[in-house]
Each structure stands twice: as C-alpha cells, then as structure tokens.
Specification:
Chain lengths: ~950, ~525
C-alpha cells in the first residue's frame, strides 16, 4: 500500500518559501516566526519537497520550544515526513524525536499529552513506539479524561499494528480494567472500541454482563455496542438471541443515530419477519420524525434495500412510507413513490390509490401559490396512479374520473400524462369506456394545450361508438371550433379588432426560429416554434381566452397539425356515424358540416392571416380527409375505423411485453448461475486467507471507500495495456503499464539501463495535456549498469477527455557532465475508459439534448452497408447504450435513427444521435451528432467515432 | 462508522484543507475531492452525494463547501451532527469564509477538526469545548511552571548569596593586595570556604583568583573591624541578610502567589537576577564610566519640533573598594541650555570650579559593586530642528487602488548612527506590503502590523536614504506615528572623563568609559 496521506493544505505556489529562509526563522527565538516557518515547511513537504536538511534544524531548535502551537505543528511535521528509508527501516535520526515525544507524554499540560497520544495513533514504526509505551500506559490513569481518551486510542492503534501484541502484550486486560472504572463517555467508547477490535471475547463478555444497563449508556457507547453486535453475530450464532435483545432494547434509545444504526443491524442479523418488521417500522418512524431531507432520502434508500429482500414485510408498511409524501422535497417524494409503486399488491392497492388520489386533490387545493412544484408533484402522482392501474386495472374506475379533471391543467406535462393515462385505460378497460367518453366530452372545452387536445381528439374519434356519443362528440368539436369561417372580410379590413390574434401573430413571428429536436424514436426533426408558442399562449392570455373556444384559439395561433388532427377526427366520426345513424339525411348533414370545417381550415391556412402558412403535411392530411369524405369505401372505412385501434392495442401490448421482459431479465440477474461457487462463511478456513475475505460488508465498504479494495481485472487484459515508451536501442529502455482507475491513472514504468555505465540523476519527467495532472514530483534515481528500476507515477484525472501524457527520461553519465534526454512515446488516455453505458428516460434525454451547449457533428463515412450493422458497430466502439427500443429499429426502410447514451465516471452525460440513410448506391450516409455539457467529451467522443466508424477491417 | 476525511473546498473545487482520519493514499483522497464538485447538483434540496463507494455529506457556507467523506454504510444522522459542528467551528477560526481566510488558518482548522473527530469517530463536543481543547490552557501546566519557577528563584537566591560571598572574599583579597591587614573570625572563614566551593564548581575565571585569596587568608588573618564593616554594610550583608530572612517566607509566598494569580510576580523576581547575571559577565576594567544621553523627541508630520528633551547621566562603576578613592576630571562642550546636576554627596564647589567630580568627604570611597552609581545628570532643552540627529519624512500618496508611501531620512553629520530602526505602522493587511525600493533592509511585522526599516549604520556614506512601498488604499494618518530608534557613540554634550586622579596617591587604576546616545522615544506624529 502506498504511503497514506493524512492531510492536504492548499499551497499557493506564488509565495516563495526558500528552505534557508525557513531554517533561519526556525533557528530564531521569535515564536510567531517559528510557527510560521513550521507551517511553511509542512506545506512544502505536502507539496512534494523533501527538505532533508530541515530535520536537524527542527530537532535542534523546534523540539525544545515551549509554545503549544509549535509543538502541535511539530507533531504534524513528524506525521508527514518519511520515517523509514527505502528498505523500510526506521531512519536512525528518528531516535532524536523519541525523547521529545516522551517529554510530551509526561508534559504538565494535559492537552499536549493528549495531542501527542493522538499523534501516536498515526505512527506505525515499532522502533519509535517501543520506548514510549510505558508512558502511554501511565497516561491511562491520568485524571484528565482528555488524556485517557487519547491514551485508549493510542493503545488501540498500537495493539493493532502487525507486531502490536508484542509491544503491548497485556493491552486488552488493561483496557478492560480501565473500561470498568471509566466514567467519561468518549473514553468509554474508545475503550470499548479497542476491545471490539482487539479482543472481541472480552468486549462481548463486558457487554453481556452489563446488558441490562445498555439502554442507559451514553449514545457514543451505544453506537459502539451496535457495531460490535453486528460483527459478533456473523461469527457467533448460538447466543444471537441475547444480542438481538440488546438491539431491541436500544431501539428506544433517545438518540436517533443509535436507533437508525440498530435498525440497520437488525436487518443484517436476522431475516426473520419480526426483525425486519421492527427495522422497517423504525425506519418509518425516523422518516416521519426527521425533517432533514438528507436523512429522509437515505432512510428511503435503506427501505428500498429492504424492499428488495423482504417484499412481504415491506408491503405491510407501505402506508407508513407513503406518509412521507408530506415532505415538500420532490426527490423525497419521487423516492417514496418509487418504493411504494413496486410494493403495491392486490391487498393494499385500494388504500394506496385512495391516498394518491387524496394527494392529487390536495395539490389542486394548494392552488396557485406553488404552481411549479405542485404541477411537478401532480405529474408524479398521475404517473404513479397510472402505473398502479396498469398493474391492477380494477382500480382505474375509482381514479380516472378524478384525474380527468386535470385535463385542463395549466401544467402541460401533467395534463399530457393524464390524457395518455386516459387513452390507455379506455383501451384496456372497456367497461369504463362509456362513462369516460361522456366525461371527456364534458371536459373537452377545458383543455388548453395543443398536445393534450390532439390526444383527446384521437380518443374521441376512436372510442365514440354509440349514436349519441358520436353526435355529442361532433357537436363538442364544432362548439370548440366556434363560428366558421375562421376569418372574415371584416378581419381583412380591420385585423386589429381581433385582440387575441394580433399578439399571437407577433409572438410567433418573433419566435418562429426553427430548432432541431430529437424525437423519441431517434429521428432528428425540425420543429416549428409556432406549435410551442401555441402550447404556452393560453397561459399568457387567460382572460381573453375564456371567451374564445380552445380549438379555435389554437388553430388561429397557427397550429395546423392540430387542425389536421381535428380533420381526421371529424372524418372518423362521420364514418362512424354512417354506420350507426339510420337516417341518411343526418349523416349527410354531418358530413357536409365536417367538410365545411376542413375547407375553412384550409382556407385560413392559405390566407395571409395565419401567423405562418399551413405546412405541407397538414395540408395533405386535411385534403385527404376531404377526399375521403367525398367518396368513401369499405376499404377506407376499415383502415380508418379498425386498423387504427388495432395498432394502438398492439403498441400497448408491446409496451407491456417489454416491461415484463425487463422484469424477467432483472429477476434472472439476481439468481446465481447453477455452477457458481457457494461460499459458506463458517466453513472458510481462517488460516492462509487474507483479512479482506474474512471481513464483513461494513468493512468491505470502508475498504472500497479508501481505495484499498479494488477488483483486479484479469491478467490477460492487463497485459494489453503495456506500452513501449522507448526504442530497444536507446540507452534507456522504458515501458509503462497503464492502469486506469476512476479518478486516477497509474503508470508503472519499468526503466532499464542498457549501457555499461552508471546513470546518475535519472529522472522520468512527465507532462500532460488535457485535464490530467501529475500528483508527485519526479524523483532522481541512480541506475547501475544494466539494472532496472520500477517507477510509479500517479496522474490525476478530473474530467472525461482524451488526454495525452508526454515524457522524457533525463540522465547524466559520470564521464560526460551533460544531461542526456530520451524522448518517450506519447501515452494516449482513452475516453472509453471513463464512460459507461447508462439509461435515462426519453424526456430527460431530450431535455439534455436541448440544454447542452457542445455539439460535434460527424459525417458518416463507412464501408458498412447495413444500417443496423453500422449502429451495432458504433455502439460497440463507443461503449454506449442505445435508448431507442429495438422495435423502433425493426424493419428495413433504408434509414435509421437512434439515440445513444452514456455517463462518465464523473457524472457527465454523453449523448449521441445517429441518423443514417441508405443511398441509392448502397452506401450509408448521414450524421452522427454528439452533445455534451463540456467540450471535452464532445470532442473526444467525436474523434473516437471518426476513428472507428470506418469499420469493416476489424 | 468512521469519517474518512473532513475537508474544506471552494465552490470551484479547489481543496483548501483536508484532514484524513483513515489511511488512504494521496491520489485517492485527491481524486475523491476532485470528483466532488462535478457530483454536486444544483437546485437540490439535500446535501449529500453518493457515488459507487463513498458518500459526501456537505454544507455550503458562503464561498465554501465543508465536506465529510464517509463510506456508504456510515450513519447519516451522526455525520450530519458532525458536519453541523464543523460548520460552526470553521467560521470560529477562519477570519473570512473564503480561500484566503481558510488558507491563513489552515492548520488551526486542522487542529480543530482533529478535536471534533478523534480518528474519525464522532465526539460529542460543543464549539466552546473545541476552542478550549485547541487553546490548550492548562491549569496544571501553570502550577507546574510556578513550582519550577519557585525552585529556580530559590536557586538564584543561593546564587546571589554565593555571589556576595565571592565579592567579600575578593575584597579581602584586594585588601591583602593593598597591604591592609585583616583577621577572619571562625564563622567568616567557614563562609568563605563555602563560597570557594561554589566558585570552583562554577568553574569561572574567578576560581583561581579566589583560590589565591583563600591561601592568603589562611596566611594573613588580620583584619580591622572598622575597615571591614563599612565595606560590608555598603553592599553585601544587608542583601544577603534580606535574602536569608526572606528565604522561608518567600518560599511560602511564592506558593501563595502562585495559587493566587499569574506569573507576573515571578517575572519581577526574575528580571533583577537576570540583570545581575548579565552584569556579572563583563568585569573588564576596575573602573567603568558610563555616559549616556537619552532622547525624547516628538516631531510633527510637517517637520516642526514639538518636543525635544535630552537627559544625560554619568555613572560610575567601581569593582574594588580600594579603587574608590578617586576624583574624575570632566570636560564637555559648551552648549546653551546645558545644565548639570550632581549627586548630593558630590562636592559641588569642586565641580563648579574645576569640573572635577569628587565626594564631599575625601576619606570616603565611591560606592563599589556591580551596580552603576549615578553621579551627575544633565538636561538639554530648547533645541531646534536643525540639531535633530535624524529627520524622517513620510509621504503617503494614493494612486488608483494603491497607496504609495515614500519615506526618506536625513541624518545630521554630527553623529554616526547605528542600528537605526524606523517602524511605520500600517493599516491591517493580509500580506506583506510590496517594497519597491529601499536603502537598507525591511521586515514586516504582521503581529503589530508595522513595517520596520532598519539601517545598520548611517555614516557619511549614507547621510540620506529613502524607501518606497505599496499597500492597499489607506488613510494617510494610518502611517503615523512613526517611531525611530537608533544609537550613537557620541553625545550632544560631549561629556567626557578626561582623567582620573587617585586620592590615595597610588597608581591610577585603569578605567574605561562608555559613551552613548540612545533614543528613549522618537516619534513622528
């Protein structure tokens, strides 16, 4: 393991601090100057200087200082200097400091003693510690608790050293004795922890003999108890009951931290439903009693973990979890809903949905004060209800009507969610159809958003079956369109009289910039700004709009897509009417009315009064509707009345299928392979196994956190990473073995002296380009003839970017007193090491796409002929995930569009959109667009794609 | 349940201070902290971030983040408690909550972190307790020091007593040299023997001399009481007696006082002994004449002299009593406003007539011993600006965002000045001021916030000099009062001892004279 680093202090390189200046100040008698010089010396040391000449100065002039700050700084200095030579032996001069430490341990000032004891915890050289041990032990009985606390810590860490038992053979007994008579909470905790770590039997014995008093113990000690119990119970099962009893008694501790810890311990000790239930209840209590969002979120994480392993128990506490929705924090609410939705079962679904419904109503009551937050929350609730009803369609009836009140919600997103929900329910729940259509017809006039409108229209067109429904639908639409024609001669003359029209015209004229968006299926579309403004406009002019029917105002603002939807809905309704209306005259009347609407829309679209003229697609669509109504046929009727619904049903089915597929895939992952090795903890041999394997997961977690515990990749792939840095005929041969960790790159450089001379002051100088930073300063080495040496260089990485490391090796030979330089090959750091495939929702992807500033557009140039093969190739070579569902990529239509997504270890997002088309000559053409928040990713990923997209030859 | 590290970062992600409580390599902690700013989202209502392996719990304060790095199993409730404590502690120590403020007090913050988290385990402390632990005020240490001090004082008492004994024995030796007869009674002899032991153990140059004295004593044991007594009463015995009497009471006193209060009482006790031990060192010539003039000057900014006061003293130190029968011939420059005052025991007539200092009673010797005996004082007043030994001119001028301060000095050619220190007070600054140009050397005293311009020697080669430094904008008055210190080896009055006449007609003993002019206080206001 590398030398541990105990502190970092920002060092401003601008301030010059020369070693001799520091030395002078240290030698002087001015305490302030001395303190300052010590600080500077420490900073220089932290910055990689070695300052060997300072040591003696410090021993001579700083050691005897009486000042407390100087003494403390001295301890820090001693903490960070190298105390051993290259071979791991303690440097002889370290003996000089021992006397000083000894004096400090017997110092009259209790704080000096305490601080020195604490410093000893960070010392691992037995040679230094040995002479100090008697003094450490006497401090155990000092009457000041500050000293005792630290003495216990020191004893604990000394005992845990590799040869600690020899240094302090009777430490556990002493500590146990001390623990018995100790009063100070923190000292007791330290003593107890020492026993836990060094002599578990004693700790357990002490705990069990005091089991009754544990609930009265101070919270610090209780924490240690919980920790111990968790450890002990892994190994020692028979008396688990007694331990669990202690834990249960601690669940009523006044300290919430202890309670939280207990709950965690309970779960890890036992999977019995009682224990899990107790833990879950505890968590729920904490959830409602703690107002801190951090705590709530983390408790929810714990509950989520419980959910995975103990579903049945958790579904009992669903309602308790739901209560946390009262928190105003959206993250908390989202997490709560996630947990709850997964736990919904036939037993509790009614309750859950009822609660959700109440919450929805509450958001409405909350009113306009927190409109944004309320809207977002409502959207979450609607989605949650939606998910519930998909699982348990029978509950839909109780909520759908309440939800339909929100079709006219000013929050477009939640209204869209509602309408999509309605669309799905009406298909899957035929029983509700009649009442829902009725309700939709009633509330249709409230709908303000164009997208919601078009969806509602589709529902009306598709599911109005009976005569009365069809007629009501037609009349509602007509009503919403208002008086025809859309504009008149008077408007021609005085266009300003129309108060609503003018602002729309202005606003869309100013915002009619066209911006590209990515659609859900990955197609790269150009969206006209007008439709966006149309969605926004109603909230801008609520007063005037109340008088004008919604469809009319939307169409007047130039939303011709909506006009096309209106046209096709009317067509559909008229076709249906033909089937159900016995009176031919009525049908004809309706038909001609519909034709009139369509024609006026076309007329309006082509007149100069629309904010912009009608687009071709909408025009064609409306014209098609007109033509259909003029001469209908069975074929057409079938397409319009049946196939449409069929494909919708198919879409729903596929969605469901995909979800179940995913679930199944998830379930499969969690199972072990049939031929997997099974570890029996109790059968593991204690001998010859590394400490790591015997530790429990808490320790693993700690080790991972400190970076000590990294999974080794298999050796074969490691060998691929060896890079030759110099030529074989160079006087110095170097090769590097590059390991890329998360935030750092380690270069293990092997340097071989190939000459017959001794190379002096050999130095590996590295420089970096990109967001890379060298951590250590290069050191000088002397290399004997034909010998080799391993040099390790650490490079810090702070963002995802292709980086280059340059370097050279500089050395001197004895006879030529000039520096020789060998230039090294560049080391390229690949962006692929930093990004990993990830998923995100469609909407987030598109939001990010709109938001990110950097775009890199790469023209497709490849030898691959097949679009899908090309996509596969790009996915493979960029290590990204395709977000576009495979069903959307099916078929062979000559073009393909897909979205890819990946996340870097630094949490940066990388978005890629591929749009390719097969040319007539069989070649693929198109573009790959990369977007990211930072330039680095966009550029590096672009380079990577340009390099790899050719394909074929690999 | 251990905190891995407690750190302070700027909002931009620069690591200002980080204290690790668990062993981890530098690259790891730097990596973790470097990743943090990227992970912190904006607009979040919670203040923790989790990655695959660690959890950061943070709290933004002004331009900073205070961060605890923990593992993911860590107890969030405890960590939040700790974080709250840290967030209270950091502003306690940092003068300002930004990069500079933290950088200045980085180590103090690390010390405080160490107290808040003992090796990563939470401590239930309050801010006041952390403060107390960091200040390290220890009652026990004070007691311990007092005990030590009283022991030292005791030892010094012994030393003083020994010193007087040595002197006594020396005087006896001197008497022997001048042919006086003396007899030593039993107890005296034993005393001197004791002194002798002390001397030889101290191993100083006296050892051999008084060894000789002992020998002569044993041979010559005549002594007239009349001779011995006045000498004894003149100096040593009362002192020694006082010490001996005080010995017991003083010891108890020391304890009482130590219990009562701080160490100031003791310091008073220390100083005289320190002076004495110092003055023991240069027993060069048998007679030393010290002539000293002290200046008390206040000059206004514009150069006008507000106050000029010069006080001179002539003092005499005679080591051996036999050399005490002398008269001093004085000479001085004739100056207006110069008036002398002599000690009441001095023969005024003689002085006024012939400028000779001698005692009224020619049969009495001058007091002897280690102390200077003041014989004559004089004053000079009503001098004008032209006679100032050194004038200093300070010109602060504001230019843009900075204040340029030009200082020049001009020394009169009457004196060669040594160890000139001109200290200019500065407004409270973060960094040392930038000195653009300087004749001599400078030093910035951050504690007192002053700039010290020191010139080792001003002689004919550098009668004038200047310096210029730049500080952030400040009021002109901030740079006053400037105080000036120097010393010179000649005086205004030019009082000198021209010669020494021995009244006993024996050979004139060797004498040395020290002449110096020093500033008591010289301020430009």
């Amino acid at each position: 393991m590398e030398k541990p680093c105990t502190l970092l202090v920002h060092f401003d390189k601008g301030t010059p601090a020369m070693a001799n200046e520091i030395k002078e100040a240290l030698e002087g008698s001015d305490v302030a100057a001395k303190v300052d010089a010590m600080k500077r010396a420490i900073m220089l040391l932290l910055n990689g200087e070695t300052l060997p000449q300072l040591f003696i100065t410090i021993v001579r002039y700083v050691l005897p200082s009486e000042d407390h700050t100087v003494q403390k700084l001295l301890l820090i200095y001693l903490e960070i200097i190298d105390k051993t030579d290259a071979r791991g032996r303690v440097l002889p001069e370290m003996i000089l400091i021992c006397q000083n430490l000894l004096n400090n341990l017997q110092h009259a000032n209790e704080y000096i003693r305490g601080v020195t004891l604490r410093f000893l915890c960070r010392i691992s050289e037995p040679e230094i510690l040995e002479p100090l041990i008697p003094s450490v032990l006497t401090n155990l009985e000092h009457r000041h608790p500050f000293i005792r606390r630290n003495a216990l810590l020191a004893i604990s860490s000394i005992y845990r050293l590799p040869n600690g038992e020899q240094l302090l053979p009777d430490a556990p007994e002493l500590v146990e004795k001390a623990l018995g008579s100790e009063q100070d909470a923190s000292a007791r905790r330290n003593a107890f922890l020492m026993l836990c770590n060094c002599s578990q039997d004693r700790a357990v014995a002490y705990l069990l003999s005091n089991a009754d008093r544990v609930p009265e113990w101070p919270d610090l000690l209780q924490m240690a108890v919980v920790d111990l119990i968790r450890k002990v119970c892994r190994a020692n099962r028979p008396d688990k009951g007694r331990h669990i009893k202690i834990i249960i008694s601690l669940l009523n501790s006044p300290s919430t931290a202890v309670v939280y810890e207990c709950a965690g311990a309970l779960v890890s000790l036992s999977s019995a439903p009682t224990a899990v239930r107790a833990a879950a209840n505890t968590y729920c209590q904490l959830l409602s009693s703690q107002s801190d969002n951090n705590v709530r979120l983390i408790i929810l994480d714990r509950l989520n973990e419980l959910r995975k392993s103990h579903r049945e128990v958790m579904s009992e506490v669903v309602m308790d979890v739901l209560r946390a929705l009262s928190s105003p924090n959206p993250d908390v609410r989202r997490k709560v809903l996630d947990i709850v939705l997964d736990l919904v079962s036939t037993k509790n679904v009614d309750e859950v949905v009822l609660f959700l419904k109440k919450e929805v109503v509450k958001t409405q009551a909350a009113g306009e004060s927190d409109k944004d937050a309320g809207g977002e929350y409502r959207q979450m609730l609607v989605q949650a209800i939606h998910a519930c009803t998909i699982k348990f369609p029978e509950v839909a009836g109780s909520v759908v009507h309440v939800l339909m009140d929100f079709l006219g919600d000013s929050n477009v997103a939640s209204a869209i969610d509602v309408v999509i929900f309605v669309r799905e329910i009406i298909e899957t729940n035929p029983k509700l159809r009649v009442s829902m259509i009725q309700r939709l017809i009633d509330t249709f006039y409230q709908i303000r958003a164009a997208r919601v409108c078009s969806c509602a229209l589709w529902i009306l067109g598709e599911y109005s079956l009976s005569l009365s429904e069809v007629e009501a639908a037609i009349s509602t639409i007509k009503q919403c369109l208002g008086e025809l024609p859309f504009y008149s001669a008077t408007e021609d003359a005085e266009p300003t009289t129309d108060s609503t029209k003018q602002p729309h015209a202005v606003s869309s004229a100013t915002t009619s910039s066209r911006r590209p968006v990515v659609l859900a299926d990955g197609t790269y579309a150009t969206q006209s700004a007008a439709s966006e403004t149309a969605g926004v406009a109603p909230s801008v002019l609520p007063g005037s709009l109340s008088s004008i029917p919604n469809l009319r105002s939307l169409i007047l603002s130039g939303d011709f897509f909506l006009a096309a939807v209106v046209a096709s809905t009317l067509t559909k309704l008229v076709l249906r009417l033909e089937e159900v209306q016995p009176a031919q005259a009525e049908t004809n009347k309706a038909c001609s009315a519909a034709l009139l609407v369509m024609v006026s829309m076309l007329q309006f679209g082509q007149s100069g009064f629309a904010p912009h003229p009608i687009d071709d697609d909408s025009y064609d669509r409306i014209v098609l509707c007109v033509r259909l109504l003029c001469n209908t046929g069975d074929e057409v009727r079938k397409v319009w009345l049946e196939s449409c619904r069929q494909s919708f049903a198919k879409m729903l089915a596929e969605k469901q299928f995909r979800e179940t597929e995913e679930l199944r895939a998830k379930a499969q992952i969690s199972h072990a392979q049939p031929d997997d090795l099974i570890d029996f903890y109790h059968l593991k041999s204690r001998k010859g196994m590394s400490q790591l394997e015997l530790e429990d997961e808490v320790h693993d977690d700690l080790k991972r956190a400190t970076g000590e515990f990294t999974k080794d990749a298999d050796d074969a792939s490691r060998l691929n990473r060896i890079l030759q840095l110099t030529g074989f005929s160079d006087p110095v041969y170097a090769e590097a073995y590059v390991t890329v960790h998360h935030y750092d790159i380690v270069l293990d450089v092997t340097i071989i002296n190939r000459t017959k001379e001794t190379l002096q002051n050999l130095c590996l100088e590295l420089a970096t380009m990109g967001d890379l930073k060298l951590v250590d300063r290069p050191q000088n080495y002397t290399l004997a003839p034909e010998s080799s040496r391993q040099i390790k260089a650490n490079i810090k990485v702070s963002s995802t970017e292709t980086g280059v490391i340059f370097g050279n090796i500089v050395y001197e030979t004895s006879n030529v007193m000039e520096r020789n330089v060998v230039v090294l090959n560049d080391i390229h750091i690949d962006i692929m090491d930093y990004i990993s495939p990830a998923t995100c929702a469609d909407v987030t992807f598109r939001n990010m796409w709109a938001e990110f500033e950097w775009e890199n557009k790469v023209a497709v140039s490849t030898v691959i002929q097949d679009e899908k093969e090309f996509l596969e190739h790009i996915i493979k070579s960029t290590n990204m995930k395709c977000l576009t569902p495979p069903s959307a990529l099916e078929g062979d239509c000559g073009f393909l569009a897909a979205n890819l997504y990946a996340k870097s270890v630094f949490g940066e997002d990388a978005l890629v959109n591929i749009s390719v088309e097969k040319q007539a000559d069989g070649k693929l053409s198109g573009y790959i667009r990369i977007r990211s928040k930072t330039q680095g990713i966009a550029l590096s990923l672009g380079d990577k794609i340009t390099l790899k997209q050719k394909g074929g030859d690999h | 349940m251990v905190v891995l590290a407690a750190s302070v970062l700027t909002k931009t992600g620069k690591v200002l201070v980080s204290r690790q409580f668990v062993d981890m390599p530098r690259i790891r902690i730097e990596g973790l902290l470097a990743a943090f700013p990227k992970l912190v989202g904006t607009g979040k209502q919670h203040t923790y971030v989790e990655t695959e392996n660690v959890r950061y719990v943070y709290q933004p304060i002004e331009a900073l983040y205070i961060i605890l790095v923990t593992n993911k199993q860590s107890n969030i409730l405890e960590d939040l408690d700790t974080l709250r404590l840290l967030a209270k502690v950091v502003p306690e120590y940092a003068p300002s909550l930004d990069e500079e403020g933290i950088g200045e007090m980085a180590f103090e913050i690390i010390f405080a972190f160490d107290e808040c988290l003992s090796l990563g385990n939470k401590e239930n402390l309050t801010v006041a307790q952390v403060r107390q632990y960091c200040e390290m005020e220890s009652h026990e240490e004070k007691l311990h020091k007092l005990v030590l001090q009283s022991k030292m004082n005791e030892a010094k008492d012994v030393m003083k007593r020994k010193a007087t004994e040595i002197e006594k024995s020396k005087i006896e030796k001197g008497k022997f040299q001048t042919g006086a007869y003396s007899s030593i009674s039993g107890p005296r002899r034993s005393e001197s023997g004791f002194g002798d032991i002390n001397i030889s153990s101290s191993g100083s140059g006296f050892g051999s001399g008084s060894g000789f004295g002992l020998n002569t004593e044993s041979i010559d044991s005549f002594s007239s009481k009349s001779k011995d007594r006045p000498a004894a009463s003149a100096k040593a015995p009362p002192k020694g007696l006082g010490m001996q009497l005080g010995k017991k009471t003083q010891k108890t006193n020391q304890f009482l006082e130590s219990l009562k209060a701080e160490g100031e009482v003791i310091i008073e006790d220390v100083q005289p002994s320190a002076v004495q031990s110092k003055s023991v060192l240069p027993p060069t010539d048998p007679i030393t004449v010290t002539i000293e003039e002290k200046l008390n000057i206040i000059v206004e900014k514009n150069g006008a002299l507000r106050n000029f006061d010069l006080q001179g003293t002539l003092s005499l130190q005679i080591l051996n009593q036999d050399d005490g029968f002398i008269q001093l011939q004085i000479e001085n420059r004739d100056m207006p406003g110069l008036s002398f005052k002599t000690h009441p025991n001095i023969n005024k007539d003689l002085f006024n007539r012939e400028q000779i200092i001698g005692l009224k009673d020619p049969n009495r010797p001058f007091p002897t011993g280690q102390n200077d005996v003041g014989l004559m004082k004089w004053r000079i007043q009503k001098m004008d600006e032209s006679s100032l030994p050194l004038t200093v001119n300070c010109w602060p001028s504001v230019s843009g965002n900075e204040t340029y301060v030009n200082i020049e000095y001009e020394a009169s050619d009457l004196f060669d000045l040594q160890n000139v220190v001109i200290s200019v007070p500065l407004p409270a600054l973060r960094d040392a001021p930038t000195v653009n140009q300087i004749d001599g050397e400078w030093r910035y005293d951050a504690r007192n916030s002053s700039l010290e311009w020191s010139i080792l020697l001003i002689d004919h080669s550098n009668r004038s000099g200047s310096m210029e430094f730049v500080v952030p904008p400040a009021d002109q008055s901030a740079f006053f009062p400037i105080s000036i210190k120097f010393a010179a080896s000649s005086t205004y009055s030019d009082v000198k001892v021209a010669g020494i006449n021995s009244l006993k007609g024996a050979t004139v003993p060797k004498y040395s004279q020290r002449v110096q002019l020093i500033t008591d206080s010289y301020q430009v206001v």
